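Quick review question:
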């Protein structure tokens, strides 16, 4: 058995806040979707179960993408979870459809 005096450093993973269905507002959802990059992220997520930030960044700077994901999360459009050091994102389609029936489908059907 090896005993060392070195402290063990445990980093807590950042947890993300997601609004409840009651706290979703149409204004925030529409604002989040008004940006072409965020709309592109939502469209991509609509076709998959989940995707990492890296899969959705389109070669854009990490700082810029962090901002876009925060806006999408704050609006209630995206759920982000930690898998190791990777952030996995999924579209909260069921929650959005419960709160605003047909809105997401209507928006995603537009080109």
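Suggested answer, residue by residue:
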């Amino acid at each position: 058995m090896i005993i060392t005096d070195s402290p063990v450093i445990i980093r807590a993973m950042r947890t993300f806040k997601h609004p409840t269905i009651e706290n979703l507002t149409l204004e925030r959802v529409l604002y989040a979707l008004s940006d072409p990059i965020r709309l592109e992220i939502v469209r991509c997520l609509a076709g998959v179960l989940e995707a990492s930030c890296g899969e959705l960044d389109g070669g854009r700077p990490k700082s810029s993408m962090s901002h876009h994901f925060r806006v999408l999360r704050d609006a209630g459009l995206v759920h982000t979870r930690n898998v190791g050091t990777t952030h996995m994102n999924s579209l909260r389609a069921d929650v959005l459809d419960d709160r605003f029936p047909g809105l997401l489908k209507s928006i995603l059907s537009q080109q």
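Why it works: The mean pLDDT is 88. The first strand starts at residue 51 and ends at 52.
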